[in-house]
Task: inverse folding
């Protein structure tokens, strides 16, 4: 029996391109005795060892950079999805073959070039490949597969009817919370850090220090200068500026002050889990509701994309229903 690895990038909608895969397409030897087959699709199988080995490879770049328990959670989620991804890719590959769909090297190179333009500034292709645990060869194989599937989808999935104005309006009315702009504030602060190891004397000294700084500010001292010279927050390099933040983003004591102080007032010292703060609110913007006219095009695109995704999923499920799928023993 043939074995084939499978991309763990979910096949969704018109664009099935993904640079992050769990299993890249490749031909493999028959599984070693005792290596259980997880699933067989139309005579093509994948084993537990193949899934696990490729997951380990793809996670190698992040091993040691996150807590072990978090890494295990990610690994478990990837394992759970790998079987369905294998089935999906296998039936799609067979259907592409049946429809004699092919792509040229020029098609692959063009798509690859477009992908490289979307990389973050300063990141090279090699950097991206290392991060995803892929090789250039496996990435280009995935590009070829995705291009073939896009052609298959375009040829076999009927474009859903565009949403009407009434559809768009109904979605807006039923999801108004999604179009709320929360109340926001623009503020700067000075922080004197405290630690759980600080005894009462140390905390009292820090409190006295920040109260002295507040007095200087009330008497007219330059806030940015005082912050730069005294604050324990990285914002000191910006004169203490925290920029604009929405309600719900800051710890409660800080938020309560930021959304109640008078504009430009040097507020009283506020204590949080991080330490003692002096806060100056420079601007506050009330919560608003984005009007329908402003968001209707965005809603229309969302509804069109959702309808297309649904049509693609139904098409893929139809292919699966016709496939010979045999699951191995647990």
Result:
């Amino acid at each position: 029996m043939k074995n084939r690895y499978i991309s763990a990038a979910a096949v969704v909608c018109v664009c099935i391109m993904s640079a992050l895969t769990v299993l890249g397409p490749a031909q493999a030897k028959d599984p070693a005795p005792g290596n259980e087959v997880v699933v067989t699709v139309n005579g093509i199988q994948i084993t537990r060892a193949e899934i696990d080995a490729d997951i380990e490879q793809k996670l190698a770049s992040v091993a040691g950079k996150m807590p072990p328990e978090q890494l295990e959670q990610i690994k478990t989620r990837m394992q759970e999805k790998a079987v369905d991804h294998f089935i999906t890719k296998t039936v799609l590959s067979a259907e592409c073959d049946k429809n004699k769909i092919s792509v040229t090297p020029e098609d692959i190179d063009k798509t690859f070039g477009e992908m490289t333009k979307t990389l973050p500034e300063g990141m090279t292709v090699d950097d991206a490949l290392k991060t995803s645990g892929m090789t250039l060869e496996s990435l280009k194989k995935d590009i070829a597969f995705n291009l073939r599937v896009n052609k298959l989808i375009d040829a076999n999935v009927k474009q859903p009817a565009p949403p009407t104005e009434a559809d768009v309006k109904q979605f807006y009315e039923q999801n108004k919370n999604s179009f709320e702009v929360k109340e926001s504030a623009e503020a700067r602060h000075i922080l004197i850090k405290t630690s759980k190891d600080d005894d009462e004397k140390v905390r009292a000294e820090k409190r006295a220090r920040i109260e002295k700084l507040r007095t200087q500010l009330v008497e007219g001292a330059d806030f940015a200068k005082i912050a730069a010279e005294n604050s324990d927050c990285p914002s000191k390099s910006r004169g203490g500026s925290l920029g604009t933040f929405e309600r719900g983003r800051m710890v409660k004591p800080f938020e309560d002050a930021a959304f109640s102080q008078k504009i430009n007032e040097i507020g009283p010292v506020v204590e949080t889990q991080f330490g003692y703060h002096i806060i100056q609110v420079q601007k506050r913007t009330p919560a608003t509701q984005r009007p329908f006219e402003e968001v209707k095009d965005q809603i229309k695109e969302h509804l069109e994309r959702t309808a297309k995704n649904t049509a693609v999923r139904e098409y893929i499920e139809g292919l699966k229903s016709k496939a010979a799928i045999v699951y191995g023993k647990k």
In short: Residues 1-29 have pLDDT under 50 and may be disordered. The CA atoms of residues 217 and 223 lie 6 Å apart.
